[in-house]
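We emphasize that the prediction below concerns an isolated chain of 111 residues; any contacts that depend on oligomerization or on bound cofactors are therefore not represented. The input was used exactly as deposited, without trimming of termini.
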Amino acid sequence: MTMYLLRIDDFTHAHGENPVLAFQGASPEALAKIFAEALQQPRLFDLWRKQQDQPEEIDPALGDTDSNATVIAEQHDLHVELQVRTRLPHRILKQRLNWLIGSNWELYDVR
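Result of the prediction step, given as a C-alpha cell string:
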C-alpha cells in the first residue's frame, strides 16, 4: 500500500471543471469522504465514461478501484492536507482528484 501526501492551498476553489464530476462539498472532511468513495467504488469513473464519445473504447483499467483505500483530510491554517493510502497507481489517484477538484492540489510526498 502506498501513502500519498497532498496539499490543497486554496480549498475554496477546489472544484473540478465538469459539474457532474466536481466536488460540491464545503469541508475537508467532505472531500476526504468523496475522494475515498471515488477510489473505492467505480461510480465516479462510470459517470465520466458515460460522458465520453465512445465509452466502450475506454480502457477498463482506468476504472480500477481499491476497496481498502482511505483518505484523511486536515485543515492547517490556510491549506488542507490529504493523506491517501491506496494500492492504486498515481495516475488513477491523479485522474480522480482532477475530476473532483481540478488542478488545485499538489503531491508533496509518497511513501
